[in-house]
Every structure is written in structure tokens, then in C-alpha cells.
Amino acid sequence: MVLVEVHNSLSVKMIIDFSRIIEQQAELDKGIFLKHNTNYSNTFQERKLATLVELGELANEVKSFKY
After folding, report:
1. Residue 8 pLDDT exceeds 70
2. Domain-located, residue 16
């Protein structure tokens, strides 16, 4: 179980369980790896870059984010 506690700008506390999302992503990855004849290790750099891009997009959406 992966739980993350989040507080938003209205001081509302939310606990998000990422377990289901992680399981679904693993299933999606497995299908992609089979379809494209690759594996987790061979796509590490691309997935790392994609994660950084998504984090940047999240930071742009969060109203309290300042840089």
C-alpha cells in the first residue's frame, strides 16, 4: 500500500492510495514491453525523462508553487 498525505491551499487533508495506480501502470508497461519487444531496463532513461516532464507540468498546475 502506497499512501501519500496531501494538504491543499484550503488546508484540506487528503490521503491518496497509489497502490491501484501502480498496479495498473505495471500492467500497461507489460503490454507495451511485449508489443515493442523491449523491457524495463532498456526504457529507463525515457521513463525517467517522462517522469520529470510530468512533475514539471504538475508544478505549473499547483497554484502555490513559486520559483
Report:
1. no
2. yes
What 3-state DSSP class applies to 47? helix
Long-range contacts of 4-13 (CB under 8 A, 24+ apart): 9/63, 9/64
Q: Which helix (H) or strand (E) is 9 found in, with range?
A: none
65 to 37, 43, 59, 60: CA distances (angstroms): 40, 30, 6, 7
Q: What is the pLDDT of residues 23-63, one digit of tens each?
A: 999 999 999 999 999 999 999 999 999 999 998 888 888 77
Query: Does residue 67 belong to any structural domain of this protein?
Result: no
For 38, the domain range is 3-61
